[in-house]
């Protein structure tokens, strides 16, 4: 298992190293950066949904907290961007820990509705606190600064997110193979059986929810600094659904499925622009096709078909 996973990680590293030398222009480099950012968000979300079996329909709210922390704290309070990014992760982690215990007393569609409500509350707060957030119009984000140098170059940003993606994949693999990861898989299989063998169900649910939320917050900050602007759309319901769709299409409980789902669904809208007004219809039809013919997601279904476990 570990050998196969390491080979997969090497393939990811090779692809990331090759991308800047094969993309024809800055548009495709920008697309690659967005793919990598989405892949890291989906990795964290897949740990929650795919491995622990806990649904979240409001995850974009945590993304929005991180993004706005990197905008509000430097703009209004003079914080360094790195400190603001850390502050966003801490705020997100505390919020996630506070709401996780009452939320995870629920199951099934009740849990889904509770997480959806949390995301909507965050989105409404960002829209209404206009004196701090700029309201529905959003606000600019100060540039990221490292060692006294401000980062503007797309190539520099690419290498930053590529390095973070490699770390995220490696960390996810090791987490899944750890006792913590085995407890998550047991939790997904049966909460009652997990309790019988000594797994603290509540603690593991809260821990993975907080970890996944902090993943999203960190990537929200990275996205905000890269784009240079934030708006409440970062935290809206449709963005949450898009992230969940990436998890499902790529493959739940699959590290590399997270990458495939993020890459595919980030690139697909760009590939469908030639349909001029029918993009959404074609996009929906493609997603239906994936779910009909690849019901477990792309990577797990193909792995099962060719007789190879991930």
UniProtKB/TrEMBL annotation:
Highest taxon in the source lineage: Bacteria
CDD domains with a match to the protein in the record: TM_PBP1_LivM_like
Record-linked Pfam families: BPD_transp_2
Topological relation to the membrane, as annotated: Multi-pass membrane protein
Location(s), subcellular: Cell membrane
The keyword Membrane appears for this protein: yes
Keywords recorded for this protein, A-Z: Cell membrane, Membrane, Transmembrane, Transmembrane helix
Molecular-function GO terms, alphabetical: branched-chain amino acid transmembrane transporter activity
Predominant location: membrane
Listed GO CC annotations: plasma membrane
Transmembrane intervals: 6-23, 35-57, 77-98, 110-126, 156-176, 208-227, 247-268, 280-299
Protein name: Branched-chain amino acid ABC transporter permease
UniProt organism field: Azonexus hydrophilus
